[in-house]
Amino acid sequence: MLGKLIKNEFVNRAKPILGLYAIVGILAIVHALLNFVTADLGVNNQYMDITYALILITFVLSVYVSMVAIIAYSFNDYGTRLFKEQGYLTHTLPVKTIHILFARMICDLCVCASMAIFYPLAICVSARDFSFIKQIYDEISSILVYGNVITVAFDLTKLIITLSLLALFASWLYYASYALGHSFSTGKRSKSVFFAIAFYIVIVNVIVFLELVLLDRVDYDYRHDLVNIFLFIGVGIFVAITNTICKRRLNLE
Fold first, then answer.
1. Among 252, 53, 27, which Cα is nearest to 122's?
2. CA–CA separation, 71 vs 215, rounded Å?
3. Which of 20, 75, 201, 253 is the most exposed place for a label (fewest CB within 10 A)?
């Protein structure tokens, strides 16, 4: 059943996200072609310069707007399917709430990974310069040559885990705040904002506490692990809050 829920998550979000990627990708290709025509073929006139500038501005805006739109759409999809119009249908499905949340978590990670891959690639295509990707490859290759392969692989894995946990931490802070706010019958949005601010204050204080009390006593090599543990516990708490609200204090009115 979890597999079907994951598939449903991708089906619900794939079309608008892929549509935004297509727009950005087409603009990147068009900009690259215009750059080739003006720079390499030497076709320079006022019309071409204006068109080139407009396409460049549109491409840059499309990158920023599409990134914000994807994040906003994911958040809106969460509210719509769990707490608004489709909430009754979602919560009457013969599945566990925690499985619905896990399916969303997996989809969120995949969306974040696709953004991390797609946008740098689109920018490289637009600029007709893949040196950025080559630099990353060269850096990894040099580390593998001069360092221990197992150690490098382990460090890269830890970095990926940290980035994944950070993305989940930020998204589930929103999800938990939204769920808490919408467990009330009135003032749902204002209460959601209140809980988000409250979570932020608590998190800042915990970070300050860790910085003052623990980090100075922990070896530098283990601080990364401490950050991962903090993020993992935070994600777990936010998921538990969201799951509890959906199961016991759900208010769809």
1. 27
2. 33
3. 253
pTM of the predicted model over 0.85: no
- Contact of 151 with 163, CB cutoff 8 Å: no
In terms of Cα–Cα distance, which of 61, 42, 43, 44 is closest to 126? 61
Among the residues of the chain, which ranges form H helices? 2-35, 46-83, 87-91, 97-127, 131-146, 149-181, 188-209, 220-248
Residue whose token pair is 């996200």? 17
Residue 1's closest CA among 125, 93, 134?
93
Q: Is 170 helix (H, G, I), strand (E, B) or coil?
A: helix
Number of other CB atoms surrounding residue 188 within 10 Å: 18
Question: Residues 60-108: pLDDT tens digits?
Answer: 999 999 999 999 998 888 888 787 766 666 666 677 888 888 888 999 9
Nearest CA among 165, 159, 158, 193 for reference residue 177: 193
The SS3 assignment for 128 reads: coil
